[in-house]
Design goal:
2 domains, 196 residues, mainly alpha, elongated
């Protein structure tokens, strides 16, 4: 079988998988046949050395079903490596800045969860302070001041309970927000890498 006929047969056998994976697989096996021919095999022997199109298609479909990756055909050229080395100050700085921004966002979310607990604690302290002042006013015989401080103590106690109920679920919500951001960033990064 000639190379062109083999690749057409392989393309027919690969129907049902994403077109980008079909193109990638065909490019890989086209290159494999060319490499075998460069090593001294004739075209038909090079095609036979790879196996049948049905076997290859079956293994590719199994690989994709198992979450694996298809074989890559591109290799980094010397020019690409040179650009990576010379561009290191730029791309590494941008990468470090992005990591710093991401870390700052996560720290701010955690700080929000921690700082929110200051409200119920402040209201609890206000409750204790107002209750002590009400008792002192009662001891000194000032009933009007005692009533004001007792009312303030009740208001602070109510606000303490309310803010406690609100803050109780805040750490769980912050953790869910961090998880959501992380998942979306991972999906974005892997989608870009797979698109290349």
């Amino acid at each position: 079988m000639k190379k062109a006929a083999f690749l057409r047969s392989l393309a027919r056998q690969l129907k049902g998988i994403p077109p980008s994976d079909i193109r990638q697989t065909l490019a890989y096996y086209s290159e494999a046949v060319s490499d075998a021919m460069d090593d001294g095999l004739d075209e038909e022997a090079a095609v036979r050395s790879l196996g049948t199109a049905e076997e290859i298609a079956l293994s590719v479909k199994e690989e994709l079903a198992g979450g694996g990756k298809l074989p890559q055909t591109r290799k980094r050229s010397g020019f690409t490596v040179l650009l990576l080395i010379l561009g290191f100050p730029v791309w590494f700085s941008l990468l470090a800045a992005g990591a710093g921004i991401l870390t700052a966002v996560f720290v701010c979310i955690v700080a929000l969860a921690v700082a929110a607990w200051a409200l119920p604690l402040a209201f609890a302290a206000g409750t204790l302070y107002a209750a002590v002042c009400a008792l002192l006013a009662l001891v000194h015989g000032n009933l009007t001041v005692c009533a004001c401080f007792a009312g303030a103590a009740l208001v602070c106690a109510g606000l303490c309970v309310l803010t406690y109920q609100l803050c109780k679920s805040l750490p769980r919500r912050c953790a869910a927000l961090i998880r959501t951001i992380w998942t979306k960033l991972k999906a974005l990064c892997f989608r870009r890498r797979n698109a290349k």
